[in-house]
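Posting here for the record, re: flavin-adenine dinucleotide.
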Amino acid sequence: MADDASRKHVAVCGGGLVGALNACYMAKRGFTVELFEMRSDIRTQEVVRGRSINLALSVRGREALKGVGLEDKIIEKGIPMYARLIHDKDGTRRPIPYGKGKQNIMSVDRRLLNEVLLDAAEKYPNVKTYFNHKVVKCNFDTGEIVFLHDGREVKRTVDLIIGTDGAYSSIRLQMMKQPSVRFNYQQEYIPHGYMELNIPPSDDDQFAMEINYLHIWPRNEFMMIALPNLDKSYTTTIFMPFDMFESIHTEEDLMQFFTDTFPDSIPLLGEDNLKKAFFAIKALPMVTVKCYPYHVGSKVVILGDAAHAMVPFYGQGMNCGFEDCIVFSEMLDEYNNDFAKALPAYTEYRNPDAKAMCDLAMYNYVEMRASVNSYLFLLRKYFDNLLNRLFPSFWVPLYTSVAFSRMRYHQCIANRAWQDKVLTVIGWSVAGMTTVGVTMLGWFRLAAYRDTTPLQLIAQLCTESVNTVEEWLS
Ligand SMILES: Cc1cc2nc3c(=O)[nH]c(=O)nc-3n(C[C@H](O)[C@H](O)[C@H](O)COP(=O)(O)OP(=O)(O)OC[C@H]3O[C@@H](n4cnc5c(N)ncnc54)[C@H](O)[C@@H]3O)c2cc1C
Ligand SMILES: COc1ccc2c(c1)CN(c1nc(C(=O)N(C)c3cc(Cl)c(F)cc3C(=O)O)c(Cl)s1)C2
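Prediction output follows.
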């Protein structure tokens, strides 16, 4: 019997990117939705120029936005990046396309994205939003939630609590405390921190760098990345070990470091801007959170960073959280909004993929920190793109499967593991052929030097070595 969705009362706790989008998905199903956000309404806050934060939106995130009719609205406010632009220490810039033709990653403004999602959620008559409401307690048996609002407690009892309260989720924290749940949890902070800087428009109010690119300064231990904004600035994120941030005490230290590491960025950032910004804010941490299960009974489920926070070295955190909304909605379809069945099914289906993406992002962090400077970054991507051109259905680069397909994340890894095996075989056979080739070349050169043929040379050397042994023995 088709379930009457409108009787279902759902509380989405956390009005960030994933919560606001999921409120749209739940409302579209006909549920009565209340969206609670602990902060004030970002749409009422003043826009501070030069403080915009942007994100890379790729296929998974776009599909999720399309699912609630918001893809075009977001895309029209984004800037397509068709390639990476690798900045070398000597100022050389090399493009590496993301794919053939117009394949691109969209640079979108985080705040704009959140505002559009909140506006869209509020357009549904069955959605109500509450700001300055912080979840402090949940009862996973009754569905009761306690919020702190203006210093007093506000309560709700709902059919489903959806935790979209981010990497430091209080709902996940309470799930951990339920002994009956046997909740598995692991988190890892990496030794790097990140700091967001800003490359302003040029003096004649133009973009200061090439526009439709994801700019990267890969320097092994350090890295910088810049994505374009609609206001012609670039949000520039520097990734560096915390102890390195802490070792830069003075403006001289800072300028020396940038001169040694990112020289071409100094005129772009502006020396005074750089000095002011760098010492005005502290570097922020990056954490990976993996956990299981994502639900408790039929009353609570967590999505987005609350369920799987990842380091940003694939630009997939939000895309993954947005894809959670598609998967969760598909599970509700499959089980006809029966939460007792849909929630466990969601955990079993999504957990392997979210964990795989957390591991991939961490793997890429380790890779890039250890061995990726401009040349190696270029080499790897060129090799990937060449094989993909030669054998398009046979060789799908890992970043393509992650950012340009909806291949399940755990299958992206399986696909890559197989490619690594192929690469190893190719690598060894190239090494073997090179060794044989160099040896042959050596023989030919030596034979020519002794004015003979390689075979006669081998015969001569065998005779000489037999004579030598006979002399020793006599
Ligand atoms: C440097 C950096 C770069 C990144 N770049 C990219 C990128 O290019 N592409 C990409 O896809 N991802 C990127 N990410 C990841 C992305 O930012 C996150 O994955 C995404 O914001 C997660 O969304 P969320 O809604 O799950 O959590 P959040 O965005 O953290 O939202 C959680 C919301 O819940 C609210 N909240 C918290 N606690 C409570 C409570 N107790 N009660 C009520 N509300 C609460 C918070 O105020 C917040 O509004 C990046 C992350 C970092 C750090
Ligand atoms: C706002 O802050 C941030 C911070 C990090 C990122 C983004 C935005 C967007 N990011 C994307 N990463 C990929 C990717 O697949 N890989 C392997 C890459 C990984 C790194 Cl670390 C990199 F520098 C380039 C690529 C690349 O291929 O261009 C995309 Cl595709 S988009 C990383």
